[in-house]
Structures are given as C-alpha cells and as structure tokens.
Amino acid sequence: MSESATTTQWVGRWGFVLAATGSAVGLGNIWKFPYMTGEYGGAAFVLVYLVCILLIGLPLMMAEITLGRRGRGSPVDAVKAVARESNRSSLWSIVGWMSMISGFLILCFYVVVAGWALSYVWKAISGGFGLGSVEAYEALFGATNANPWSLGGWSTLVIVITLAIVGKGVQEGIEKNVNWMMPGLVILLGIMIGYGVFSGGFGDGVRFMFAFDPEKLTAGAMLAALGHAFFTLSLAAGAIMTYGSYLPAKRSIARTSMLVAACDTVIAMMAGLAIFPVIFANNMDPSSGPGLIFMSLPLAFDQMPFGGVIALIFFVMLSLAALTSSISMIEATVAFLERHTGARRSVLCAWVGVVLWIISFFAMLSFNLGAGWTLAGKTVFDWLDFLTSRWLMPLGGLLTALMAGYVFKRSVIKEEVNLSGLGWVLWQFALRAIVPVGITLVFLDALGWLDF
Ligand code: PHE
Ligand code: NA
C-alpha cells in the first residue's frame, strides 16, 4: 500500500496544457459547439457562451486544479487531503467520488462514439466511402450500428488503446501521446479549414456560425450554453482535478486555466469553420447530432476534389480528439486504485478495462439488440449521457465551487491558487455567487421548473 500523496509531475513545460486541452477538446467541440452556435443565434450565442466560460467554467477549472494540486492525488484523495488540512469532515471526499464516477460513466458511452470515429477512419482507408447519396450514407451508418459484433469491436478497440496509453503511466503514456496527438490534431484541423476556404462555401459557413441573430437567443439557448461550458471544459469529471494533481507547484493556475479554456474555445470555433463550408458548398442542411458528421459530411466530401483524403484527415482528427479525452476520463480511477491497492498500473488498467468493457457493452447494445431496453423512453446510452451531463457534472461542479469558496480554509486555498488582490476577489466571488446561481438555474431547468 502506498498511501502517500503522489509525487508524479508532468515532465514538459507544456505537459499539463497539452493534456488538459486534449481532455477538453473532444466531440463537444467538433460537432456539438458548431451546431449549437448555428442553431442558437450565431455570434449572439457565442457571446453568451464566452461569458459562461469566463464566469463559470474558468473559475471552476481553477478550483479543480487548486484542490488537485493541493491534495496531490485522485479526486477522492485530493479532496480528502484538503478537507483534513482545513479541519473539515472527510465526507467531502464524496464530491471526489462523484467526479471520478462521472468520468467513468461518461467514458462508458463516449467509447461508442469514439468507436464510430475509428470505424470511419477504416472506411476512409478501405474505400468504404464514395456512396454518392444521402440514403446510402444513412444505410452505412445504420449498418455500422446494427451489427453488435463490429460496433462492439470498434468500441473495444477504443478501450484497449485508451487503457494501453494510461497503463504506461502519466509521463510515458499520457504525456508522450498528447505531445504528438494535440499538435497533430491542430495541423489536421488547419488543413480542413484551408480546404473549407477554397470549397466555395466558406462565406455561408461563417454566416451560419457568426451572424448576429439575437432573436434565436432564448433563455433555453443560454442554459444550453451554460451546460455545454461544463462538458466542453471536462469539468466535474475527475479529469482536470487529477491532471492538476500532477501540475508543478511553480506554475500559475490562473494563467494555465485561461490558456486551456482559450484553446478549447478557439478549436471549437475552428471546427465550425472546417465543417460548415463543406456542408454549404454542397447545398446540404446543417443537421444535428451524429448525422452531421457520419452522414452529411462524408457525402459532402465525396462530391469534392481530394474528398477521399480529406475524409480520412477529418476522421483521424476526430479520433485523436476523442482519444485524448477518453484517456483523461479514466486517469482519476486509475490513480485512485493505484494508491489504494498498490498494484501495478498496467495490471490495474487491464481490470479497469474489463469493467469498462462490460458497462460500455450495454451502451453499445443501445444501437442494436438493446434498442428496445428503455426506461422512461431512454436507452442505456441515453441514461449514461443524461445522468452525467444533466446531474452528476453540474452537482459536482456546484459542490466543488462551494468547497473552494466557502468550506475549506481560505489560507490553504489562497496559498495554493497563489492569487492576491483583485484576482483573488473576483475568483472567490465567482465561486461563491455566480457559479452557484448559474448551476441552480441549470437544475431548475432540468427539473422542468423553468418554463422556457
Ligand atoms: N471535454 C470533452 C469534449 O468536449 C468531453 C469530456 C468530458 C472529457 C468530461 C473529459 C471529461 O468532448
Ligand atoms: Na470540449
């Protein structure tokens, strides 16, 4: 049993930033944000979203990193350590449990979506595209989902890759891989945007995303922006707190968090500028959800020069984004088990992989055999998504803000975050007032008590 706090730290100057940005940049950026923006009022929505990132996402990210670094361990251990140092009940570590479990449960359905991405990389390589009609692509996506053996095979592959990386350790596995995956992702995205500029649809794409359309900016849209700010920054899912526990003491938590939040936002906007021009150049509708990426986009690529190569580039980019997020979702659990069992990381990862595989198997079946296994109209996949993004994450975020704003010793928090003057006052005001109010609104909305 090695019950002591972790001494592991990121090796490189950019280790934390790359890993945390890798966690943040995922499916949330590549299909959800661009679509929401077009749907909810373009530039007007972007403004509200930026305010949510700034007033709620950023302060919470700082709180997570502060607690993680102070407690030096998995969310459970870190929160417990800071509680002890503050003479507060160790029951607060329940918040750590919630985040850790939340990250695990998100991963259970995220691997299915990441599996789609990998399977489309394979289709791009093996000449599975070039189908030429919407119906054919609908059929292709349907067939991908209908066969539990192949869909399960792809999500199994995602699990294996994720745990192989995490199993090699924080430095040798996670850091080494994000070091090439994140630059790779940005380069591929750059190529996609360049392609979009020459596609003939660039103006329409920009207009769809950024036209200032306050009419569409309903209260519901604002709450959606708030909810998305959570998911997109990987908050309250154990990821950022655990990565923060490896952050060297001399790094500025405020500046690092701003950088990660800014990169996440810029990449989300760039993703829109890569996707929509291609869609509009082919006179297609910017449909929502999986349809946009797995049906409309491949068809659009078909009809364009170098479409086959560009499709490959796009799905490789999507897979990289998904993998750098998936490794971050499981690191908390692995770090926790490592400390409390003393077993080797690689061995633990094998076991974690098995449990993950079993639960994700049921999420995967939601698209074929288990499509009818519903509770209140939701499949296993839907439930995992709903429970985590509507409940566990906001609740974990609220409690995290309260811990860093009210519950734990000010001197401890202040020393660790290393802020003074206006910076400290603003941060504390956000944690004490803005975040609780914002999240309470999200809850009231989830309960259906706000009638938008
Ligand atoms: N931030 C990721 C995205 O936008 C999702 C994520 C959530 C990653 C929680 C880690 C933890 O896709
Ligand atoms: Na994101």
Small ligands present: phenylalanine, sodium ion
Strand content: under 5%
The number of distinct helices, counting runs of at least 4 residues, comes to: 18
Determine the structural class based on helices, strands and strand pairing: mainly alpha
Radius of gyration: 21 Å
Task: Outline the low-pLDDT stretches.
Answer: none
Identify the CATH class: Mainly Alpha
Give the overall pLDDT as a whole number.
Answer: 93
The CATH topology is what? Amino acid/polyamine transporter I
Task: Map the helices and strands.
Elements: H1 15-24, H2 27-39, H3 43-71, H4 75-85, H5 93-125, H6 134-146, H7 148-167, H8 170-197, H9 202-210, H10 219-232, H11 239-244, H12 253-281, H13 289-302, H14 307-341, H15 345-365, H16 380-407, H17 410-417, H18 421-446
Bound molecules: phenylalanine (PHE) and sodium ion.
Jot down its keywords.
binds phenylalanine, Amino acid/polyamine transporter I, 18 helices, single chain
Question: What can you tell me about this protein's structure?
Answer:
The chain has 452 residues and is an all-alpha fold. The chain has a single domain (15-446), classed as Amino acid/polyamine transporter I (Up-down Bundle). Helix content is 77%, strand content 0%. Helix 3 (43-71) crosses helix 17 and helix 7 (148-167) crosses helix 14 (307-341). It starts with 14 loop residues before the first helix and ends in a 6-residue tail after the last helix. Phenylalanine binds at residues 23-24, 26-29, 103, 106, 231-232, 234, 237, 239, 325, 328-329.
